[in-house]
Amino acid sequence: MTLHSHVNNSGFPLQIALAHRIRTGDLDWDVLYEEHFWSTQDENGFIDLVLEDSSKSFVLNIECKRPRDAEWIFLIPSNVAEANVQRATLWWSDMSQDGSFSHFEWHEFAVSPKSYEAYFCVVAGQDHKARPMLERVASEVATSTYGLAINEAKALSIHYSGGTRLYINAIVTTAKLRLCKFDPGDIKLESGELGENSSSEEVGFLRFRKQLGAPGQQEVERCTDSRGVRRMITGSESTVFVINSEHLEAFLEELLVEHKRPLQWLR
């Protein structure tokens, strides 16, 4: 194997290329950190890329993945198969003037661009007995976002006006992102297989939502009604944006957290 092949097999070229594109482009974003070390009381690791917008209010935590000739297939039931989902769970650091945090938690916000939202992902060739790859990577991203927020907390009042930072989970990959749209009623119970009427669509990015066990999520009060149960479920879910590498710039151009306020129905 040649030196060139060894380097390409590492996956680092994608990370370097994305950082270069952001630095030399016309976007309202810049590279804040590369190979950034984060730590909590229990865990530590490295973040591939951290991007920051010009207002210093928004941070995108990026894990780079460069599988070869891969497709990630997301299952989308036809009854929810619309690219109009706006909710996303972000980490919200909001420091008051006295230096205390009025918010230091995961919270749901209305985030543009809208996209499809999926709970399941199939990767060809993956060991079906192992923990699904995307769930594992997404969990690591959410954990590192929490660690990054903790590590930046001490500097928030010193370096950032307003004391507010919103941290966004993201995976940027060279894999093609495909949707498999299907009618749940067409799944054959005797075999557990899809019917013949499923369809396919390629997208540039989407939301991946799951209970990832991200640290920092607060316990929900005892449930007394269906609304409380819903809060308990959504309160333990995380959002990770999965973005094809060729669509990262388009995603950043549209990225907007409306009013910087959480969705009120989750209060």
Label this structure with key terms.
267 residues; alpha/beta; 4-stranded mixed β-sheet; 6 helices
User: What is the number of helical segments per DSSP (H or I, 4+ residues)?
Assistant: 6
- Shape, please? globular
| Percent of sequence in beta strands | 35-45%
Helix content bin: 10-25%
> What number of domains?
1
Rg on CA atoms, Å? 19 Å
Pairing-aware structural class of the strands and helices? alpha/beta
Low-confidence regions: 219-233
> What kind of sheet is the major sheet?
10 strands, mixed
In round numbers, the mean pLDDT is: 86
What's the total number of strands? 14
Order of helices and strands: HHEEEEEEEEHHEEEEHEHE
Distance between the termini: 56 Å
3D architecture notes:
With about 270 residues, this protein is of the alpha/beta class. The chain has one domain. It is built from 6 helices and 14 strands. It has helices at about 5-10, 10-25, 135-155, 155-160, 225-235, 250-255; strands spanning about 30-40, 45-55, 60-65, 70-75, 85-95, 100-115, 115-120, 120-125, 165-175, 175-180, 200-205, 205-210, 240-245, 255-260. The strands form 2 sheets. Strands 1, 2, 3, 5, 6, 7, 9, 12, 13 and 14 form a 10-stranded mixed sheet that branches. A 4-stranded mixed sheet has the order 8-4-10-11. The longest helix is centred in the middle third of the chain and has 21 residues, at about 135-155. The radius of gyration is 19 Å and the shape is globular. Mean pLDDT is about 85; it is low at about 220-235.
